[in-house]
Amino acid sequence: MAKRYLLDREAFLDAGGLIILDRPMLQDLTDQAGSASGHYFHQDLLVATKINLANPIKHVDVGSRIDGFVAHVASFRDIEVFDIRPLSPTAHTRIKFIQGDLMSQDKVPVDYCDSLSCLHALEHFGLGRYGDPIAPEGHRKGFDNLTRMLKPGGMLYISFPIGSNETIGTHFNAHRVFDPTEILAWSGDTFTLVDYSYVDDNGDLHLDKTPAQTPALKYGCGIFTLMKNQTTSGNRYHEA
Questions:
Q1: In this structure, are residues 176 and 169 in contact, taking their beta carbons and an 8 Å threshold?
Q2: Cα 145 from chain centroid?
Q3: What is the rounded distance in angstroms from the CA atom of residue 131 to the CA atom of residue 141?
Q4: Residue 14, class by beta-carbon neighbours within 10 Å (0-12 exposed, 13-18 middle, 19+ buried)?
């Protein structure tokens, strides 16, 4: 690579180029064009595409990556974002930001939207990593509040780390890792699973699977689309 750099530099000067500073970038010569794998690449593109096709009346996001998924969605529609952390003002008018703790029922508007996303965020609730209050069952409180925000018939797009027995549990204070079938017990008869995909340990996406079909993973990503049923028995986790 160093030899190629020197040859290219000499050719540039011979062609009449003017160099004011040498800054060799030798690793780029053999790199790929970019990265088209991993949790965030797949989930952000996949879920943004689903929202574009569904064209909901009001889409709200809770805690997803601003410079990834939120930016994807804001390129074609308005998006309202909730996060416990502050966000500096942006000139992009399609993003509306609201700061709040989504583990608290008092901070959550009820029947607020017909489309809701929470990508790679729920696993952090209650671990203090982002300044949130400590709550061992914070992910369940967060899921309950997502349920409250969504109108009957609305779509919930949610993702989080998934694994097998050796990795499932709380990795304090980074995140939690879940069994991919666990969310089905949380949702009870409140939601119907519309579709499920997962990203494996190699960063590859597997589309249109079922949670039970997920192989043993160390640290994958489960991507779920759930529809809130029109009539439910009100499966609620919040403690009194």
A1: yes
A2: 17
A3: 16
A4: exposed
Of 220, 230, 206, whose CA–CA distance to 159 is shortest?
220
Give the distance, in angstroms, between the CA of residue 60 and the centroid of all CA atoms in the same chain: 13
- Of 167, 169, 112, 109, the residue nearest 139 (C-alpha): 169
CATH assignment, 37-228: 3.40.50.150
Parallel, antiparallel, or unpaired for β 150-162 and 220-228? antiparallel
- Of 32, 19, 28, the closest CA to residue 1 belongs to 28
Asked whether residue 239 carries a pLDDT value surpassing 60, the answer given is no
Identify the weakest region by mean pLDDT among 50-59, 66-75, 94-103, 225-234.
225-234
Q: Delimit the domains of the chain by residue range.
A: 1-31, 37-228
**How wide is the angle at C-alpha 81 spanned by C-alphas 44 and 157, nearest 5°?**
45
Residue 174: what residue type? A
Q: Which amino acid is at 189?
A: D
Specify the amino acid at residue 54.
A
